[in-house]
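Researcher: We're reviewing a set of sequences before deciding which ones to prioritize for further study. For each one, I'd like a predicted 3D structure that I can look through quickly. This is Penicillin-binding protein. If possible, include the structure in token form so it fits the rest of the review sheet.
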Amino acid sequence: MEHVKQTLSLKKAWRYFLITYEVCWNLFLLFLIFVLCAVCFAIGLGAGYFASLVKDMPLPSYQEMKKDIYDYEETTHIYFANNVYLGSFRTDLEREEVKLENISPYVIQAIIATEDEYFYEHHGVVPKAIIRALFQEITNSATQTGGSTLTQQLVKNQILTNEVSFERKAKEILLALRLEKFFSKKEILEAYLNVVPFGRNSSGRNIAGIQAAAQGVFGVNAKDLNLAQAAFLAGLPQSPFVYTPFTSDGTVKKDLSPALQRMNTVLKRMKQAGYISEKQYHEALQYDIAKHFAPPKPSPFEKYPWLTIEIEKRATKALAEVLAEKDGYQQQQLRQTPSLYKRYLAIAEKQLRQNGYNIYTTIDKNIYDRMQKVVANYQYYGNDIIQYVKDKQTGKTVAKREPVEVGAILIENKTGRIISFVGGRNYERQQLNHATQAYRSNGSTMKPLLVYAPAMEMGVIQPGSIIPDEAVSIKVNGKYYTPKNADGKTHGFVSVRRALQYSYNIPAVRTYVKIMNKHPVTYLEKMGITSVAKEEEKHVALAIGGTTKGVTVEENVNAYATFANYGTFIDAYLIEKITAKDGRVIYEHKRKPVPVFSPQTSYLMIDMMRDVIRHGTASSVPAYLKFHADWAGKTGTGQDNKDSWFVAINPNVTFGVWMGYDIPAPLQLKYKGLNYSKRTQLLWAQLINAAYDVKPQLVAPKTRFNMPGGIVRRAYCTASESALSNVCQKTGSIYDLYNAKFAPKH
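Model: Here's the predicted structure for Penicillin-binding protein, in token form for your review sheet.
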């Protein structure tokens, strides 16, 4: 009986078990179905949401993606003459392109181990990483591991923005998948390593790309980075300006522990991934990173401010004209439409700052450097003066100390190449480039350019022509102008040669009056002096440098080179060529000779200017020089001694110097025993001596100016004017050179 009861009890328990099992199983099945439905719903909802986020985004083609991925800023480089490296074009970001094979394997291993351990396995995204990152975002987790692969980071940097939104993330995922379809892992990795930011370099400038980082942080190329250096750099992209070891002024941060801890993390992950051994790991940890940081390198602007600014300005202008010409605009159209010119200048400047061009200039580094030293050490400028000027910010009148400033330029005659220049004495005090941008009265250096050479070309005068150096008042527009000589005297009847030799003003003005109605200013225009308006030619004071605006040192010196080229003007230039990174020539200077004077006029002018140096107002120059050459030149003084000039030519080069105050004021008549004119000539001589020390064959040619045909020698005391009879009786016949076309007939 007892046995029957046990059997019934077991059957009853089994039945309850089966009922419970069926209930639990059904509940499990219902839960599973619910979960599956929820998952499917979530997937469907997520897919729908994803689709809604990217539905309006056009899918880029291979060519479009290639353009975007490789469209990164690269640093443009500047060179002195003869391919001597000057430095990089000023930009907010320094970057150098480098091929993957020229990058240390340690860098590649460190980046993959740290940023994307499944790089070689995934197809652009890692789903579980995205889900993890999404969960952390939704739950606002304190730990944010991120879910971006290298491919996604490349898309974010090059195609999208850094905006934090689900829409941007969705587009990033889609584009990453598409990018992996078109590009190999090698191409993606190479592009990533060329665009990723690395913080600052040892000079405090922003850097991107592994090559700029290797050079800027450790002073080596990317291919030469050791394990510790590679790990250090690989840790920077996560937070470049937190981990970068340098401040914005280039000094090393006091606390490097965040960057070193990050480096240790990178090394640990490399070891875990099997890229390095335990031994390598510990050796890298012992490496003294801070000891191997690169020293700060001054930018070209810091070391060569005037030169860098001048190069940037001229390169931008040259490239703007190239770009405009490609679009069908001529230079004249460009300059006549300021808004159009401004637009092309902006485009050109952007390209120069981003496209990794190479700019080659005409400047000889050694000559340029030596000239700056001469200017810095020169002892005869004269005293500073106090000028009272209105403060632009406060409007109050304040006292300002003004030193004597200087501008100088050396030009090769036959080519127009600017070999060197002096922009001033101290860029920090005054940024104006006194060689290329400062407009000043050129004083008596105007006489050969505007008066004597044009008058000889017209046949009005010749070197032996006699001009009265007597007081004269000239009526112009109802007013009388009475020119005075610098010495306050008159000298009777003088030849043109003598008038130039001693820089008499009255004969120059008298000669100018004779040719005023023949538009002599057109000669200045042909020689590149555009700052003198045609309306000014009716002002007789223009003959002795009385300009409204003035001329620059470059314009003045460049115009004098016309005589050295026997009457042909060759415009001076500084940018030799601009090339793309693949060597393709973007711009190259082309000479455009302009005929101005005949060879006969030019030689006669040269021969007269030889006398200026031999026995005239520049007679001190030969004693200051350490070499001999066939020099011909002209001194010049602005009104009230506010400007002092000396310009001279020889068969190879033309060199000119200006001295004066920025706010025009009289120069000291005497300083340390030298008058202002001799102080200018001494500086001129010391500067050209410095150039001679570097390139004697350029500065001191052994050849002389050759006399062209069509020049004859004639006596000029056979002239018939009765006023000259007494002079001729006392001195006898005096001979001079003449253009045969205009020589005396008796």
